[in-house]
Specification:
The protein has helices at about 10-20, 35-50, 60-65, 75-85, 120-130, 145, 165-175, 190-195, 195-205, and strands at about 1-5, 25-30, 55-60, 70-75, 95-100, 105, 110, 135, 155-160, 180-185. It has about 220 residues and is an alpha/beta fold. Strands 3-2-1-4-5-8 form a 6-stranded parallel sheet, with helices on both faces. Helix 4 runs parallel beside helix 5 (about 120-130). The structure holds NADP nicotinamide-adenine-dinucleotide phosphate.
Length: about 220
Amino acid sequence: MRIALLGGTGNIGEGLALRWAPKHDVVIGSRSAEKADEAATSCEERLFEEGTSCELAGEENVQAIADCDVVVLALQYQYAMPTAVAIKDKLNSNAIVVSPVVPMIKDGFLRYEPSKKYGSAALEIQNILSDNEVVSAFHTMPAARLIDLKDKLGLDVLVCGSEKPKQIVMGLVKDIEGLTAFDAGPLEASFMVESITPLLINVSARNRLKNSSIRIIGQSIK
Ligand SMILES: NC(=O)c1ccc[n+]([C@@H]2O[C@H](COP(=O)([O-])OP(=O)(O)OC[C@H]3O[C@@H](n4cnc5c(N)ncnc54)[C@H](OP(=O)(O)O)[C@@H]3O)[C@@H](O)[C@H]2O)c1
């Protein structure tokens, strides 16, 4: 698949680029083509050091989406919305948009704060990108753990969206060794998943932890 990571020069973007590039065509997007290109080269060098040879591309965000099957909005909430508006008319109609976006504010502790109108970042993005399918995923995935290629992960990723695009994104999650994808329901359920992130950060801050994440502990039904 061809995957564009908008804001891919940042934390979660770098982590996903490093983990997906061996299996997919990854394009790192940025506001600056030069910065995107540098990030792509840096990922190639990191992967080469680990014994994997692959090429990544770097483009300005709006150019990065060309011919992409999947577009990840790897951006802070306040930048994800204007970026979604900027790409709206240029997105391939079949492209799936992935949102790891978590709207949070600091108010003594971190608080989940989506827009009152939409109730979650994912639904707000879906409202902007109404011609494309939005799937939400990776909210509880600490970027630092993806970036550390020696980290074997062993973590779970909750995915929300409509059935067909959700299955595709769950496949992309499984393409990252050490991650298990769990179906967390339709996009309307994304608010619950998004709100786990500030909870994890608050728990970490109070309990001398870092890079906290989740695992689903259940007994499978035969
Ligand atoms: N970090 C994590 O561990 C983590 C985990 C799960 C989910 N998330 C979510 O993933 C999203 C991205 O988080 P992140 O930590 O990866 O973000 P980040 O590193 O802070 O920023 C990502 C990119 O955003 C771009 N950016 C900065 N200012 C901008 C502006 N004014 N307009 C447009 N783009 C701008 C920058 O790219 P350029 O300068 O190259 O344009 C930057 O590299 C957030 O919504 C976060 O809640 C993060």
